[in-house]
Amino acid sequence: MTDEKEEKKDIAAKIVRLLPAIAKPDYKESLNSKLKWTGIALGLYLLLSYITVFGVNKATSFEQFQFFEIVLGSKFGSIMTLGIGPIVTGGIIMQLLVGSKIINWDTTKPEGRKKFQTWNKLMAIVLAFVEAAAFVLAGALPVIPSLPIILFVILQLAAGGIIVIILDELITKWGFGSGVSLFIATGVATQFIIGLISPFSVTGRIAGAIPGFLVSMGMNQPALAFAYILPVITTFLVFLVVIYVQHIKVQIPLSFAKMRGFGRTWELKLLYTSNIPVILVAALIANMQLVAHIGIQPTSTGLNCSLIGCFDQAGTLVSGFVYYLSTPGGGQVNNSFLYQVISGTLLPGEVIRAITYTLFLVIGAVIFSVFWVGTAGMGASTVAGQLDSAGMQIPGYRRDPKVMESVLDRYIPHLAVLGGVTIGLLAAFADLIGAIGTGTGILLTVMIVYNYYEQLQHEKLDEAHPLIRKIVGE
Q1: Span 111-119, mean pLDDT?
Q2: Domains of the chain (ranges plus CATH)?
């Protein structure tokens, strides 16, 4: 009764009830059913990403927004231009408000987490309209200069953002894993394939690493061939490092209180909050790069500048505050920080840029990691309560949630910080060495795919397709 009264007072709950939503299934789904709904949601997402927004110039190149597209799973000029931007940006705002206690909700309790999720959804829907308007008014999308067309484009983009919110709910409740993660991995995988085997880019030069390497060797240009093959090597290196770090964990023995001699080992990973912190930080950087396009004015130096960034005629960041929060080398795999070091073309300014970029990723990842532990119900108090309700205890200690909480408190807060530092450094490392599909994108994709692999291992695979069982190793 108390929860119903609280929900009636909650403005967000009243509004969200009027909006489209996906209800949870009232039965336990099979793995095949989960995979089916995941495939349907992903298919719709991909289909919409190839539908061009009416009123936008189709001949426009959006290569300067590649980082935004990869990190937020979007495709500029299509219905999916916003991608998961509203969801992630809304999550950033709510994390900061609740984590800093500006909004004092107890997210360790179910009602607190429900309120957080409700407001998070409402914030995402509002941001879908805000970001759509910002994209158009900032000139990120060249729109026909007509007020009705401008308004119609904004509505199309906002509708696409809301559709992504619904598809994310569909995957989370009926499918497998998370829609946010799946859409990021899909976008990065597409960019990876293009960066690996595509013969040409929009600009007409060879885009793929393998075709570029073969052509360069055939033309007896070893330096250019090295520039093409280096990203392949660094991508493979990122893959190995991420898999290795995923296996670093602390094992805590547990036993059943009512069944002596029976127990299990509970694992606390070094990356306790997984890839969530780096998704939020990368989304923050992408949004800041977008904001840098607002209010651009031409200068006497030939650059187009706003308050926080300057761009050249090709739309590439060349100076300003946001410039020092972007990847050295402009995110180009054949001009990465590592390649500049090896080729001897590294400038002092790029070293400063590498340092500021790394510091921002690490500090941001730590902040979001700590906040995520509190708002996602991953703190020592919540976990201790869950283990106690499952009839588990730590051998050698009396069965008491407070005692278990004190033991877990020795690990979880430290893992939140250390995991944030680790994932931030990994993202910076991957970007600086120039992995294909951007270092951050490849890092996220490898972690997402590996998490899917771990989730599959805990599913009943009796009815699964033989290929799925073979992948999992059964």
Answers
A1: 81
A2: 34-207 (1.10.3370.10), 231-474 (1.10.3370.10)
